Amino acid sequence: MQLPNVSGDRCAACPIRHRAVCATCDDTELAALEKIKYYRSYTPGQPIMWRGDPMDYVASVVVGTARLERTLEDGRKQMVGLLLPSDFIGRPGREVISHDVTAVTDVTLCCFRRKPFERMLNDTPHLSQRLMEMALDELDAARDWMLLLGRKTAREKIASLLLLIHKRSDRPDNLGHQSSAEIELPLTREDMSNYLGLTLETVSRQFSKLKKEGLIVLEGNRTVMIPDPEALRLEAEIDDVAIE
Amino acid sequence: MQLPNVSGDRCAACPIRHRAVCATCDDTELAALEKIKYYRSYTPGQPIMWRGDPMDYVASVVVGTARLERTLEDGRKQMVGLLLPSDFIGRPGREVISHDVTAVTDVTLCCFRRKPFERMLNDTPHLSQRLMEMALDELDAARDWMLLLGRKTAREKIASLLLLIHKRSDRPDNLGHQSSAEIELPLTREDMSNYLGLTLETVSRQFSKLKKEGLIVLEGNRTVMIPDPEALRLEAEIDDVAIE
DNA sequence: CGTCAGGTTGATTAGGATCAACACAGGTGG
DNA sequence: CCACCTGTGTTGATCCTAATCAACCTGACG
Hints:
Two copies of one chain form a homodimer. By secondary structure, chain A is of the alpha+beta class.
């Protein structure tokens, strides 16, 4: 996979400039951030942070997909977040990392050492307000996911996940409702099962069933065509009061 | 139930002064907040906010317990948060309420009309930083709960809930590990089932089983004695890396 | 005294987990 | 070039946990 050449680039040219934690920073603030930022890259499967380790830096995802997860002693795993470009990693004000983070695809992070970043947070309201906004958005998303984990059936979970990935892989040509859509799954069946609170066998079976019913069309293992997104939406029991 | 006389009180005397969104405000900021605040009270079961309604105000819980929940069309319910004193309700910057909020016990809120509060957020870094902190804490809590919903057994869920309530009803005499503890459940079996992603029958059965095994002692329906919190902790599969 | 909300317990069912076999593609090394 | 391995995915058989359906209990309250 060819990575965009981000290292050393000016923030102004950054692909996530207008969505990440720095979105509302002005030129002066951006210059200050630029001084303390550095890039890191990871290959698929590579750990990025471990729960319990000291949190030396925080970061924005620039390119790629990562998963945020927790593991029980006996090995049961639950993904608690899917990190896509512009998502923020880490919790300023905390000494220790609370969730494992792992690269799913090739990933490039824009990192800030925690201490300098915390100092900037303190005297850059634009930054703390943006981070507050992002945290509140993620909180809403986490709560929606709690509804899925606690109450939805396997079939509804799969449909919801497909629609979530569809929505978040927002290509620019996304004007209103399309009559069909194609999405690229960054996750393996196992990753998906860990996100949905299922086993990988159940995920596989539900894929097969949705395929047989014509609600999805598989092109290879990772590419899913959704002939009629509205029909899939009915299966997902999603309800957007024009909120999300 | 006798409510503390909070209405009209000065913030300085407020029971949640040092934990709520206003915790880090100085006297001047507090005075400004005092001008736009007002109190509201609710009786058990009374709705506080409805998903989809315009968000006219945001609030802090001063006294009592409320639940935050989402409902599927067919009636399936999932609690997505338990709101205790000092917790914040609402999302500045959003026009519409995204979760239902209902009083569980008698509840007193300290409310702020949203617009003035948003203006204050903009020019009061103490406030936005505190709200950011609280949102990030809640995000961590929500993610812990996702692990519970997705991967824990009914028995583990119940044990986790009891320990959560024990931890959050932090009486001052809470110096380190106690050899036994008594907690007061604000929730009905049904509320608990909605929080844990179970049915109320399953909750009831697991209570009976834990009782039979001596891990808990019921005194009436709502009071639970935990003879050996460490033993219960082993059942809950909780793992705190000195994080929480 | 009857009603009703909250709670317990029992019988049965079902959705998903578990255990297991196999398919297939992509490397790797002889 | 082929044999082999490994990671990923599919499908089948069986089991088990928690859901469902149902009866009943208790205490509060008009």
